[in-house]
Amino acid sequence: MSSHSAPTALQDGAALWSALCVQLELVTSPQQFNTWLRPLRGELQGHELRLLAPNPFVRDWVRERMAELVKEQLQRIAPGFELVFALDEEAAAATSAPTASIAPERSSAPGGHRLNPAFNFQSYVEGKSNQLALAAARQVAQHPGKSYNPLYIYGGVGLGKTHLMQAVGNDILQRQPEAKVLYISSEGFIMDMVRSLQHNTINDFKQRYRKLDALLIDDIQFFAGKDRTQEEFFHTFNALFDGGRQIIITCDRYPKEVEGLEERLQSRFGWGLTVAIQPHDLETRMAIVLCKAEDHGIQLPEEVAFFIAEKIRSHVRELEGALRRVIAHVNFTHKPYSVESAKEALRDLIDVQKRMVSLENIQKVVADYYHIRASEMQSKRRNRNVARPRQMAMALTKELTRHSLPEIGEAFGGRDHTTVLHACRQIEKLRRESAQIEEDYRNLIRILGA
Ligand SMILES: Nc1ncnc2c1ncn2[C@@H]1O[C@H](COP(=O)(O)OP(=O)(O)OP(=O)(O)O)[C@@H](O)[C@H]1O
């Protein structure tokens, strides 16, 4: 490439990267996005998008853990582009001089706690799915360090764990403005520790964390396989716990199910109270949409909120994204808020969803989920490890598509419609009796984005 064309290439890269960021923000948690993706810079070289990281740590982390996700989104908006992760030499040179670590007290938030004031109890909608977690969180906010310690909140992506955890932090600060409360993502904790090791300031690091009154640590699943981090966190945990300081942890799964997490941490995480946030039901999703619309100063008609909540079943972040689109569409077209305008605004989202919940895709997704071959969906084999997934796929097809029972039977190896009916009833019964089957069912619904 000739040197005078470089500035244009850089600009295009920046534009592509910023468009990609809009997509990535929807599919990552704010912590993941802010910690790992926001610091990257985009540069274009031919059909190669080069993402430049400010240091090798960030580059390796993103390359190892997020490359697939970034590639997937890149293909959606710019098919045919390749992705390369590299070091931003300029930024690396600027930060190679020893700098202070990203110490909690150096945070930009007033008081250094990094809490988002919008994440409070008032703006948190209660539903069946989060009732217990919310009650526990309120209790902890009133009696930090005394009621449930640690409070361990777990559940799927975007269901409100961070919001709830920060609501506790904000509430504690409101009651005791002098309290030292720190919210940090587990990636932030790891980065802070790594930098302290690099700069020989690990004792400061220890002191900083051990002085806290409440430590709120988000998405602890990222500690998996990181022995040094776990060792350090173990001591931090013990010091805080012994001192009667509050610890709140969030994770995408139950402590014992986090592979690569030391047993001593798993068992400590269960010392206090472990509460789940389940996927939200339709009523709760609708209430959340209405509440978020109000935050934007909009009185959304209930039927529009119902439409959005019914179409977007995956998680709240997607609900928020859908609502933002509807608002933008209405502002742009000057049409009133109506189901019709919401339909127009969300057309492509709904189309993608329709494709996801096609019969073939359900078979494929369910087969992948249970690690069996997709062809088993049509096979005559009856042993349980293929029969159960097959029943699950039939029940999901009945639930999520408009295919009739005979059509479904036909697609599952020419089975009779009574077999499909039996499968649906069987899954319904098993969902009531077995927590595992219920969880599988909900997970699959979420994966299918239905
Ligand atoms: N019950 C709720 N009431 C109001 N807003 C909610 C609720 N649940 C989630 N949200 C909103 O949804 C968005 C995503 O929530 P949050 O970041 O807390 O999810 P999370 O479970 O921590 O996700 P991740 O697993 O990706 O970290 C936030 O904007 C949050 O305010």
From TrEMBL:
Spans traversing the lipid bilayer: none
Record region (Domain IV, binds dsDNA): 331-450
Annotated stretches, region: Domain I, interacts with DnaA modulators: 1-94
A single GO BP: regulation of DNA replication
Region (Domain III, AAA+ region): 114-330
Binding-site list for ATP: 158, 160-162
InterPro entries: AAA+_ATPase, Chromosome_initiator_DnaA, Chromosome_initiator_DnaA-like, Chromosome_initiator_DnaA_CS, DnaA_C, DnaA_dom, DnaA_N_dom, DnaA_N_sf
Subcellular compartments: Cytoplasm
Domain Chromosomal replication initiator DnaA C-terminal stretches: 358-427
Start and end residues of each AAA+ ATPase domain: 147-360
Keywords (A to Z) from UniProt: ATP-binding, Coiled coil, Cytoplasm, DNA replication, DNA-binding, Lipid-binding, Nucleotide-binding
Coiled coil: 420-447
Location (main, coarse): cytoplasm
GO cellular component: cytoplasm; plasma membrane
UniProt similarity note: Belongs to the DnaA family.
Subunit structure: Oligomerizes as a right-handed, spiral filament on DNA at oriC.
Stated role: Plays an essential role in the initiation and regulation of chromosomal replication. ATP-DnaA binds to the origin of replication (oriC) to initiate formation of the DNA replication initiation complex once per cell cycle. Binds the DnaA box (a 9 base pair repeat at the origin) and separates the double-stranded (ds)DNA. Forms a right-handed helical filament on oriC DNA; dsDNA binds to the exterior of the filament while single-stranded (ss)DNA is stabiized in the filament's interior.
Domain-level remarks: Domain I is involved in oligomerization and binding regulators, domain II is flexibile and of varying length in different bacteria, domain III forms the AAA+ region, while domain IV binds dsDNA.
Official protein name in the record: Chromosomal replication initiator protein DnaA
Gene name of this polypeptide: dnaA
